[in-house]
Amino acid sequence: MPRRVFITAAEVSGDLHAAELVRSLKRLDPSLRIEGHGGPRMREAGCRIIYDTTKRAAMGISGVSRIFEMWRLLQWTREHFQNRKPDLQICVDSPAMNFHFARAAKERGLPVLYYIAPQLWAWREGRMEKLRKWVDRVACILPFEEAYFRKHGVQATFVGHPLFDELPKDRVVAAALKFPSRPAIVGLLPGSRRSEAVANFPHLLDVARRLNHEIPNLSFRVPTTAQTHAVVSELITRHSLGRFRLKGDKIATALDSFDKMVPECDLCLTVSGTATLHVACFGVPMIVVYRGSPILWNLIGRWLIKTRTFSLVNLLADDKRLVPEYVPWHGSNKPVFLHALDYLRNPELLASQRKRLLDLVAHLDREGASTNTAKIALSLMGSAQLPPLSHD
After folding, report:
1. I want to staple 189 with a disulfide (CB 3.0 to 4.6 A). Which of 2, 148, 164, 270 is the partner?
2. What pTM value is reported for the model?
3. Mind listing the domains of the chain with CATH numbers?
4. For residue range 132-143, what is the model confidence (pLDDT) as tens digits?
5. What's the half-sphere exposure (Cβ side, CA atoms, 13 Å) at 329?
């Protein structure tokens, strides 16, 4: 009988990474039957989607409703594991959801692979015991994670970063900045989730209006996702009036256009996350922000989060101040505006950061994360001898 793999992913990024993994699994073993919870990218890759976890997030349903939906989904999955036991459960990112699926699988005797390790090195290290108990192998995407997890008794392997599997094959990085030989273009990157856009984009727009007031020939680019497009469009319309008005021809939005819009930019104001490494791959300088609840940060976040830097590029760089961070971003938008204005008035600062970003990416830029993870998955199902991982 064909072997069966069950994959669980949530939100846009998890769906994208899982889709590449599905393709790699099918290349290595075309007979595999792959099903699970995820989104349209996984479906396109050949996974039978039982429940679309990305669609519900995009609708912006309330937290209570979301919890109830997840509880029902977990109950269904437990029964499915009991009655039609797959040969492997793969969790992709999203530990808030996937720890429950890992436990459900392990309690029914299934091997569990976790792809894109939960960032326990940053916060909530107390969950390490659960990871050891419920997960057989962890596929890490950051170079320092393998040693960290192995030190804590977790079978971990660095597989590479999936972003380099997903970038356009014809990606071109310009040899030099186009600005100031032409008017500057600024990217406003609100994140891939609706909640991120709601929290951050009004403030990014405020910074954009202030910049436009000081440098009238600026223009702006806003790449969106299916989860953020509606809220971004609504906010642009709602905030088009006021002291620093942005006319329609000054700001362009487009769905699923990150790889097209970002390379056009001279500076990006981006929320923290994988987007920072994505921007760096095109050699575009950036300022990183992330706005959340100041109450939750002061009550909980500042005590739980152990890292003193937050953006992915700073975590990976020897210079932990490679890019400016406003994380958490509380209070006035003026400091971010002034920092961006300083960059735009001093292009040599942009050129310096650009060079350092490209140097960082050069050490990481290799494909293979999805294939390496697929090889680990097949080994957990008892496959015959497989080729070594691509970076071995």
Report:
1. 270
2. 0.86
3. 4-160+366-380 (3.40.50.2000), 185-362 (3.40.50.2000)
4. 999 999 999 999
5. 27
